[in-house]
Amino acid sequence: MSEIVAIELLKEIASNTASKDSLWIALVAGGSGVLGAAVSALIAYFAANRATHIQKNIAEQSSSLELKKLRASIITTERLRWLQDLRSQVAEFYSYIDIQTLHIERLLDPRVTPISRDELDRISKEAGLKANLILLMINRESTEQDQLFRSINSALIFINKLLANIANPTNSLNRQEIAEIKEASYKAMHEIGEKVWNKVQALD
């Protein structure tokens, strides 16, 4: 078979096998591929968008939780610091009251050499300063803190009465009175501490 005849035969075969159906098949196949790619892209976009939204919500919730933890930690720290400061101030105040009581008792006893009035005044000044610090730390709307307030004032009144009558050695010093005042203060401090601790635990 000659080369020209073979070429003509191939052309005839190609012409006979070509049809509009095969063209449509190609178009549909191509269109399906493009549509599939578009759908896949849309699904991927919405999936990524949803994942981003979920991650954002998780991040916001985590941030809110951390903020609450930080706030609880600060409140807890400040409450415990305030309680410790109050305890220290009350303990120091009553140590000065005890010293004042001891020295006033010596002043009332002619057999004992008393300390100087200047030294007693210095101790009284320190006691007064501690009392003022305590009273400024107290919220009188709280029953327990109001009780502490009143007992601190009672201790100051007790000492002031003794100092006012110090020139009269016949007056006796009533240690039971100051002991009861001190006990009332310590009872109030115990109740304040218990209340603060309950609030701290409630924040956990």
The CATH topology name of one domain reads: Methane Monooxygenase Hydroxylase, Chain G, domain 1
Counting DSSP H or I runs of 4 or more residues, the number of helices is 5
Shape assignment: rod-shaped
Residue share in β-strands: under 5%
Q: Pairing-aware structural class of the strands and helices?
A: mainly alpha
What does this structure look like?
The chain has 5 helices and no strands. α2 packs parallel to α4. It has 204 residues and is mostly helical. It has a domain of 131 residues: Up-down Bundle (Methane Monooxygenase Hydroxylase, Chain G, domain 1).
Note the main attributes of this structure.
mainly alpha, Methane Monooxygenase Hydroxylase, Chain G, domain 1, rod-shaped
Summarize the structure.
With 204 residues, the protein is mainly alpha-helical.
Explain the layout of strands and helices.
Layout: H1 3-17, H2 20-108, H3 117-137, H4 143-164, H5 175-202
